[in-house]
Amino acid sequence: MNFIGNLIWMLCGGLLSAIGWWIAGVFWCITVVGIPVGLQCFKMSSLSLNPFGKEVVDEGGAVSFLLNIIWLFVSGLELALANLFIGCILCITIIGIPFGKQFFKIAKLSLFPFGARIVRERTIAC
After folding, report:
1. What is the pLDDT of residues 52-65, one digit of tens each?
2. Which residues are listed as membrane-spanning (predicted)?
């Protein structure tokens, strides 16, 4: 089921979200100091391509908090607003609600990506 959700997700705007993360990563990698931030953007781009079956776990500390503050003003606000906008549009229809919820998850991650770890959701077998 996750495969089908991720396939439809790419058509409903997931590819645009991933391209936004990728562009932010390229701009951050221009300087040597920004390379760690750019690498984090590339990781988040992979989440934007297939978010179903994954969840975000926060494990941040003091350094992550400082990076998140810098990130928020430089790149995070734009990405978060774009994902929030697409999520709201998708939530207009009942079919789009699961996709909108994934965009909201990525919008939250767009604001504070550092200290976040992406893990697979646990499924309970019957």
Report:
1. 888 888 887 888 88
2. 6-35, 80-100
